[in-house]
Automatic annotation (TrEMBL), chain A:
Native species: Thalassospira alkalitolerans
Protein name: Glycerol-3-phosphate ABC transporter ATP-binding protein
PROSITE patterns: ABC_TRANSPORTER_1, ABC_TRANSPORTER_2
Family in the record: Belongs to the ABC transporter superfamily.
NCBIfam families listed in its UniProt record: PRK11650.1 (NF008653)
GO molecular function: ABC-type transporter activity; ATP binding; ATP hydrolysis activity
Cytoplasm found in the keyword field: no
Domain ABC transporter: 4-234
GO BP, one annotated term: carbohydrate transport
InterPro entries referenced in this protein's UniProt entry, alphabetically: AAA+_ATPase (IPR003593), ABC_transporter-like_ATP-bd (IPR003439), ABC_transporter-like_CS (IPR017871), ABC_transpr_MalK-like (IPR015855), ABC_transpr_MalK/UgpC-like (IPR047641), Mo/tungstate-bd_C_term_dom (IPR008995), NA-bd_OB-fold (IPR012340), P-loop_NTPase (IPR027417)
Length: 370, 309
């Protein structure tokens, strides 16, 4: 097991930079998830760690050794591909033992390793089968097994669950987590699925346009997103954003005045000045529906989405779509007017110009930005 | 009256049942008629010539001679010489076409500037009419107009420039070289298509697993190419064995029948000696040999894929 340090890593194709100076320290045994929309550079970064892409400039070290010039096979890493990349002409056992065979490991040792890993992954009955005779979930397991057998310094996962159906994905998510706890191996996991990121990561690395936007534990990222991109990308259903201007009353109370003139009270934000253009961000669960006489802001009902456990109410507020999460089962008619309130302790104020979050004055100054 | 009515009713039932049986055949009949007229009739007609005495210059020929042609064939040294030449011609051409085609496909499968243009150009020899390429190569081997004998002399392969097409020991290499040049694109293009269908991740996974280029070729590339290799080798064997154009144009089977293959021998018998009956008999034997070869290859393939799964 080993730590991975990435120092100012840049990747360009010709004149186009796809990664602009990535700095990231991954601790020994940590499970890191790189998350971001497609084209953000997360897979490229992973492939640079694996040695499948050249590093244009900067350094990547694994276990304290700079690996820039090392071939993939000399980096002592294992990778699980989105397509699994199982060798179709080899049996499950041959697939898993291929790396060991190439290293001329003793036969008995290979057999032991395969038996052991097949036990862990529940593949014992399938060892003689060809990949084409396996289901998607089984292939995924074989791909994992092939990685585990080698006992590498680090595991790299490139969207390994995206070819599975929803239920299987949920199951494999927890299995990979359990496996990680058991093996304690440093893991870098790439996904575009923020739920995978939230549920699996020790730390999430949110990326966009070849730049790390924020690094933090899932809860840090969810509760204190560094900027509008992270706030909008993490969380499902997504956060609602309302543009407005920042106002401070004589008594020190603050609020954001939105387009239709309504004032939404917020905690006084660090570094915000009166009349500054700001964007208010509120997660669906931080917006409440109140009775008509409780002083809420009026909004028009667009759509009600029942989800069983909860209900998502879509409303328009000053022309902006707003999503409200509730455990109640409201039955508003479309186009009826309801009153909503925002939980001022939980909602966020972002600087519209810089897109950065302006944390409340009560919060210690710890916002991590890249 | 009553007795006369019953059979009429029964006749109605029978004719309805009969038309029910015939109906499906009626629907497929246009296709059947076409297949019989275009494929089966010529084949049967051609085979029937093998048992008849058909000589164009003899107006009294045309009679049925039974197995006489085949008996003649058994003692025809020229035929057995042609059979041996066919094997030499076929496998000599095939080996080089395949090996060079595979190398070319592997080269074209790499990224380099202008790849698409080169891929298109590589296909050119295949598009040149065979009579034209035959003439071209014949001239190239001719010391009076072609450069090759002079180059061979300069390289020390020949004492003095001469035409290998007129040397009975070497003449076969002339059409074989032309055929190699003509046939490489076929293998290059089909193998390239197969190569491009191999997922890139497999090579990446293998390089992480620690495989060298040679090991990747053996454990990924070859297994993926195997079905294509098997089918193209079989097809090309049959095509080349039947392919007399280059030989007829370049050497006409000579000198002294040293480049006569079965296909060109058929051509010689039919259109130079005008003995269509005997030519048909040889063609029938070639057909049987090639059928046996194809069945053998198919059986071998089935056995291999069966062992595979």
């Amino acid at each position: 097991m080993a730590s991975i340090e990435i120092a100012n890593a840049v990747k360009s194709y010709g004149a186009v930079d796809v990664l602009h100076g990535i700095d990231l320290d991954i601790q020994d045994g940590e499970f890191i998830v790189l998350v971001g929309p497609s084209g953000c550079g997360k897979s490229t970064l992973l492939r640079m760690i694996a040695g499948l892409e050249d590093i244009t400039s900067g350094d990547i070290s694994i276990g304290g050794t700079i690996v820039n010039e090392l071939q993939p096979k000399d980096r002592d890493i294992a990778m699980v591909f989105q397509s699994y990349a199982l060798y179709p002409h080899m049996s499950v056992a041959e697939n898993m033992s291929y790396a060991l065979t190439l290293r001329k490991t003793a036969k008995e040792k290979i057999t032991d390793a395969i038996t052991n890993v097949a036990d862990i992954l529940g593949l014992s009955a399938l060892l003689e089968r060809r990949p084409k005779a396996l289901s998607g979930g089984q292939r995924q397991r074989v791909a994992m097994g092939r990685a585990i057998v080698r006992k590498p310094q680090a595991f790299l996962f490139d969207e390994p669950l995206s070819n599975l159906d929803a239920r299987l994905r949920e199951q494999m998510r927890s299995e990979i987590r359990k496996l990680h706890r058991r093996l304690g191996a440093t893991s870098v996991y790439v996904t575009h699925d923020q739920i995978e990121a939230m549920t699996m990561a020790d730390r999430i690395v949110a990326m966009h346009d070849g730049i790390i936007q924020q690094v933090g534990t899932p809860i840090e990222i969810y509760d204190r997103p560094a900027n509008i991109f992270v706030a909008s990308f993490i969380g499902s259903p997504a956060m609602t954003f309302l543009e407005g201007t920042y106002e401070i009353a004589a008594n020190g109370n603050a609020g954001v005045r939105i387009a239709d003139g309504a004032l939404i009270p917020v905690l006084p934000a660090q570094g915000a000045t009166a009349n500054q253009a700001v964007t208010l961000g509120a997660r669906p669960e931080h917006i409440g529906i109140v009775g008509d006489d409780k002083g809420g802001i009026p909004a028009r009902v667009d759509l009600i989405e029942p989800m069983g456990l909860s209900t998502l109410v879509h409303v328009s507020l000053a022309g902006n779509p707003v999503k409200i999460f509730t455990l109640d089962r409201p039955d508003f008619a479309a186009d009826s007017i309801i009153h909503i309130t925002f939980d001022m302790e939980k909602i966020h104020v972002f600087d519209t110009k810089t897109q950065l979050r302006l944390p409340p004055q009560s919060e210690p100054h710890t916002a991590k930005t890249a | 009256m009553q007795a006369g009515k019953l059979p009429v009713a029964r006749r109605g039932v029978i004719s309805r049942r009969l038309s029910g049986i015939l109906e499906p055949y009626l629907y497929v009949s246009p296709a059947l008629v076409l297949i019989i007229a275009v494929m089966l009739m010529p084949l049967i007609l051609g085979l029937s010539y093998a048992f008849r005495d058909i000589r164009i210059l003899n107006p009294f020929s045309g009679g049925f001679v039974g197995m006489a042609h085949f008996q003649t064939l058994l003692t025809d040294d020229a035929f057995f010489g042609a059979l041996a030449n066919t094997a030499w011609w076929t496998f000599g051409s095939l080996l080089f076409q395949f090996t060079l085609g595979l190398i070319l496909a592997l080269l074209l499968n790499r990224e380099f500037p202008g790849r698409r243009l080169i891929q298109a150009l590589v296909f050119l020899p295949w598009a040149v009419p065979t009579f034209l390429s035959g003439l071209n190569w014949a001239w190239m081997f001719n010391p009076v107009v072609g450069p090759l004998p002079h180059w061979f002399t300069a390289l020390g392969l020949m004492d003095e420039p001469f035409n290998i097409l007129s040397d009975p020991d070497l003449a076969m290499w002339g059409p074989i070289v032309a055929n190699i040049w003509f046939g490489i694109p076929f293998f290059a293009i089909t193998l390239l298509a197969a190569l491009q269908s191999i997922p890139k991740e497999l090579y990446e996974a293998a390089s992480i697993d620690g495989a060298t280029t040679r090991q990747k070729f053996i454990s990924i590339t070859l297994p993926f190419l195997a079905p294509t290799i098997a089918i193209t080798l079989m097809l090309r064997t049959i095509w080349i064995a039947n392919f007399a154009d280059l030989i007829v144009v370049m050497t006409n089977g000579g000198p002294a029948d040293s480049t006569q293959i079965v296909a060109s021998y058929i051509f010689t018998q039919a259109f130079r000696r005008l003995d269509f009956g005997y030519a048909s008999a040889i063609a029938a034997v070639l057909l049987v040999l090639l059928l046996a070869y194809a069945l053998g290859v198919i059986a071998l393939r089935r056995a291999m894929t069966h062992a595979d799964s």
